[in-house]
Amino acid sequence: MTNNNCLRSLRYTFALNNTKVIEIFSLAKISVSDEEVVGWLKRDEDSGALELSDSQLAGFLNGFIIKNRGEKDETVPEPEKVLSNNLVLKKLKIALNLQSDEMKEILDSVDFSMSKHELSAFFRKPNNKNYRECLDQVLRMFLKGLQLKYRPEKEVKKIRGTE
């Protein structure tokens, strides 16, 4: 799953306009322009599409954590240079203050079943014998489940004015 797809999904799920996306980046002490945000949100095949780097997505997720949970000790963590699906999942878990049961329910809501043990393996250190790499499919299903939880179809219809 590309970083751009992840940002697009989160933007849609939490109804973030470009200004809010820029504000979230600024919480992580990262300055981005409206043009950059527009480029990141374009589909990959569109002209003017920009690639969102691992450190930029990590910065956005750090800002998302600060937005939802507040600053910790008034320090902003340095964004990671290399970002894995495991780290994206972990940052979303922290930002949304999700427990294992809630994450499991989110995955179950999109007919993607995992045990708590399988889920906890994603949050272990890579050198742990029970560590498991989070595949694109798992992250994609988790983001889809977040959409169902935080932006149910009924709300989408209200926004579009079709209800």
Low-confidence stretches: none
The count of β-strands is 0
- Class from secondary-structure proportions: mainly alpha
Shape: globular
Provide the succession of SSEs.
Answer: HHHHHHHHH
Which characteristics define this entry?
163 residues; 0% strand
Topology:
Layout: H1 3-13, H2 18-27, H3 34-41, H4 54-69, H5 85-95, H6 100-108, H7 116-121, H8 136-150, H9 153-160
Helix pairs in contact: 1-8, 2-4, 4-5, 6-8
Your description of this structure?
With 163 residues, the protein is an all-alpha fold. The protein has one domain (3-160). The chain has helices at residues 3-13, 18-27, 34-41, 54-69, 85-95, 100-108, 116-121, 136-150, 153-160. It is globular, with a radius of gyration of 16 Å. The model has no long low-confidence stretch (mean pLDDT 92).
In short:
This protein has about 160 residues and is an all-alpha fold. The chain contains 9 helices and no strands.
